[in-house]
Structures are given as C-alpha cells and as structure tokens.
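Review this today:
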Amino acid sequence: MAVVYLHRRLDTQEVFYVGIGKEKKRAYVTHTRTKHWKNIVNKTPYKVDIVFEDISLKEAQEAEILLIKLYGRKDLGTGNLVNFTDGGELNIGRTRSEEWRKKRSEYMSSKSSWNKGIPWSEDFKQKRSEAYKGYKQSEERRKKHSEKAKGVLNTKKVIDTSTGIIYDSVGKAAEALNLNINTLYAYFCGRVKNKTNLIYY
C-alpha cells in the first residue's frame, strides 16, 4: 500500500512538491529532500496534504504523475513544483542521483502513455476524480483572488520616491519604467521584498 501527498507553502498557498511513499510518515520526512525543496522551506512554513492513502503502489504512481502534470514543474517552466521528474518511479523512498533523475525524466517523457490500460480500481478512480476537481476549484479560487487583487492595485496611485513622479496605478508604473507587472504586483502585495523605489501615494 502507498500514500500520495502534497507540500503546500503557507505564504502563497501554492503546492511546491508532489510525492509518494510506502508509509504516511514519508510525507513528513525532511532530511532527504533536495536543496531546491529546502530553499523553499527555509523561506516559509509549509503544510502536508495527504491526497490518497491505503492505495496500491501502481495507483499511487499514476496519481503522482497526474498531479505533477497538473501543478507543473518549475525546472520545465510549467508550474511551481520542485520535482525533477514526471513521477511514477518504481522504487519509492530511495535517494537517486541527479543524473538518474534526468534519465528517468527523459524516459518518462518518451513513454507518456506507459500506464494506459492498467485496470485501476473503481474506488481509486473516484478518489482521482475528486482530487482533480479539488485542484481545478483551487486554481479557480487562486485566479479569482489574483484578479481581484490586481483590480484593487490598479485603482491606487504609485509614487517613485527617487524622482517624485506619480503614476495612476501599478500597471502604469510598470509600463512607464519597463518593469514586469507581475513582479510589481508581488512587491505591492507583500509576497516578496520590494526592490524598487515605488510605493503607494
């Protein structure tokens, strides 16, 4: 039997890691994680979400592949996960070299349909469907919150303290100064340290 779990950062509520283990305690292990995983937890607290438990190893592997595909990998530019493979490794819980991870990732990419035709249990299919719906709802809530936050930010004026120039909104300031608007939003929302001279007016 196996478990499937997520690690979610508490500052942004974003999932940054998907994993599987033979036992539930694997989800709470910290000392065998990668430096990329540790870089995140050194910056923010996180929580563990157990998605599935007491399912077969094959079902856990299939769920891991699905969730990694849904949330996307940071190294591939498709999401925020620090996972370095597409999931589904047969020997879970074993430390692997970066070279092995790379080769495994390439193999999984070339065998994207390897798990088709496996007779998953009806109970697992139901759980998988519920997990996918939960993911979609979470993404929709995140997008709505982001859109609402951007709308609020765009109604506030901004001043450049180094020049005294006042802009009608964060978007206008980003356009005038040739800055990334999403980065500016992150500064003004307090998600990351503001590295500019821009503040609310």
About this structure: Residues 92-96, 110-118 have pLDDT under 50 and may be disordered. The first strand starts at residue 2 and ends at 9.
